[in-house]
């Protein structure tokens, strides 16, 4: 296949940051994706509806000219989040989920939840009002092997939580293991998962290919091959419980290439081509559209996008870096050639063969 036209996709897990970094990274997403679930792990985190409203305005103001990209906002759950704030979030119409970071699990998670029992009233409220809980599913106990933290979270936190609150709507974010795939499949409704391009295309060997590779480091960390293949099988199976979430997470080169480098992979400018590559490798390119454009919208109860975009099978080279006022960004696959690209018109807008 040389050309693939599909419904404009959405990104159901994205870090846009703020200030100069927001301005630098937003166009890559806004030109391709119709909407994105925007993560709230700023410093300070987005914990109130008022903060989310202000952040949303800053995102709208940073969009490229004529962009109709829609940011779908989230709140950052803390031990102190009041059920009343969650009700206000539901009423706001622009907040679509509440993010649970176990404290210490990942980048900017210091203000996160210290124990699931502390937030039970908040979770009961979410179940009651039907606002999805978006979960970074890893235990933080330093004695647990870093590769086992997702599976341990299912056994000790997420499984018991869903037994206790079966009405809670949950997105298990950026799943990386066979156990997570099985767990999502084990529940008839109310549970779905996002999947990143890196967890479809790479196993943990990529972190150590000829040396230490900080630009392949994110959390949850890449896993062994059997897990990558289980996650790829789930993504390309057509099961509506699995959908696209890039987890594109920009950090400056300085912050990544360091004695203690930040977790996060910057993939926004090449994300859709990467997913196309993974689906093609699995022999299921025909299932990319539903994964990228239908399943997430259906789960969140939002209308599917109407516009179309076209991918063409033509080599292009990923830039070695993207300059920003806060330092260079090194994307995934920097300087390498990819087989798929998003077709664009003379104004550099995505093209679907239906406008000049
Ligand atoms: C994310 C970030 O940098 O904000 N990092 C990452 O490795 N994925 C946080 C997150 O989603 O865990
Ligand atoms: Zn993330």
Structural features, described:
With 356 residues, the protein is an alpha/beta fold. The protein has one domain: Metal-dependent hydrolases (TIM Barrel, Alpha-Beta Barrel). The protein is 32% helix and 14% strand. It is built from eleven helices and 13 strands. It has helices spanning 19-30, 49-61, 83-92, 120-129, 149-164, 178-185, 197-201, 225-235, 253-256, 271-281, 288-300, and strands spanning 3-7, 11-14, 35-38, 70-76, 95-100, 133-135, 170-172, 191-195, 242-244, 308-312, 316-317, 337-338, 341-342. The chain has an eight-stranded parallel sheet. Strands 1-10-13 form a three-stranded antiparallel sheet, covered by helices on one side. Strands 11-12 form a two-stranded antiparallel sheet. Strand 4, helix 3 and strand 5 (95-100) form a beta-alpha-beta unit. Helix 3 (83-92) runs parallel beside helix 4 (120-129). The radius of gyration is 19 Å and the shape is globular. The structure holds N-carbamoyl-L-aspartate (NCD) and zinc ion. The site of N-carbamoyl-L-aspartate has 12 residues, from loops.
Topology:
Elements: E1 3-7, E2 11-14, H1 19-30, E3 35-38, H2 49-61, E4 70-76, H3 83-92, E5 95-100, H4 120-129, E6 133-135, H5 149-164, E7 170-172, H6 178-185, E8 191-195, H7 197-201, H8 225-235, E9 242-244, H9 253-256, H10 271-281, H11 288-300, E10 308-312, E11 316-317, E12 337-338, E13 341-342
The structure holds N-carbamoyl-L-aspartate and zinc ion (ZN).
Total E-strand runs: 13
CATH superfamily, please?
Metal-dependent hydrolases
Secondary-structure-based class equals: alpha/beta
CATH architecture verdict: Alpha-Beta Barrel
Segments where pLDDT lies below 50 for 5+ residues?
A: none
The domain count comes to: 1
Present as ligands are: N-carbamoyl-L-aspartate, zinc ion
Strand proportion, as a percent range, falls in 5-15%
Gyration radius, to the nearest Å? 19 Å
Percent in helix: 25-40%
User: Taking all residues together, what is the mean pLDDT?
Assistant: 96
Provide the CATH topology: TIM Barrel
The total of helices stands at: 11
Question: What's the end-to-end separation, in Å?
Answer: 23 Å
Order of helices and strands: EEHEHEHEHEHEHEHHEHHHEEEE
Give the C-level CATH assignment.
Alpha Beta
The major beta sheet can be summarized as: 8 strands, parallel
